[in-house]
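Need a sequence for this fold. Nothing fancy.
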């Protein structure tokens, strides 16, 4: 496309099943090759311990709430790695977001944007407005704005849940 004079943003979506070395390699390659951002995380083929879900014994990609913790841990690792770069890539956080609290955790872990998908299908079309309204309330109480922390990860994982 570049030869034709057309440039479109390209985001790399990373599966949460990568180990630490695989994640860092994917992030470094995305930066080196000019990706516009990162999406963390795709569906997982793993089944988290303690999962009690109708699909717990099925094969294939698992999305939604069971992915929340796994995607959060990967998001934080990626955000810390990218924050050390001179020109960090924005991160779109995906995986188990069903409320403003969930979205806020993703933002605190280093996301620039938050995507909802499974919860939208389960909770209906009013979910985005409810999340945005509740987020506005949270930021108002804190005396800050959502923009003040975008892409800036908390130092430790547990800080995102306070």
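Here you go.
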């Amino acid at each position: 496309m570049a030869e034709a004079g057309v440039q479109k943003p390209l985001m790399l979506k990373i599966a949460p099943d990568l180990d630490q070395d695989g994640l860092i390699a994917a992030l470094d390659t995305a930066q080196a090759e000019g990706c516009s951002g990162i999406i963390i995380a795709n569906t997982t083929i793993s089944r988290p311990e303690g999962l009690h879900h109708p699909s717990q014994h099925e094969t294939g990609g698992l999305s939604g709430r069971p992915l929340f913790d796994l995607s959060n841990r990967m998001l934080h690792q990626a955000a810390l790695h990218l924050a050390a770069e001179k020109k960090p890539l924005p991160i779109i956080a995906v995986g188990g977001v069903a409320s403003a609290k969930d979205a806020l955790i993703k933002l605190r872990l280093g996301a620039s944007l938050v995507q909802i998908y499974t919860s939208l299908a389960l909770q209906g079309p009013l979910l985005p407005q409810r999340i945005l309204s509740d987020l506005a309330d949270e930021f108002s109480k804190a005396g800050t704005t959502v923009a003040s922390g975008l892409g800036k990860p908390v130092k430790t994982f547990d800080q995102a849940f306070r």
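For context: The chain has one domain: 10-46+59-161.
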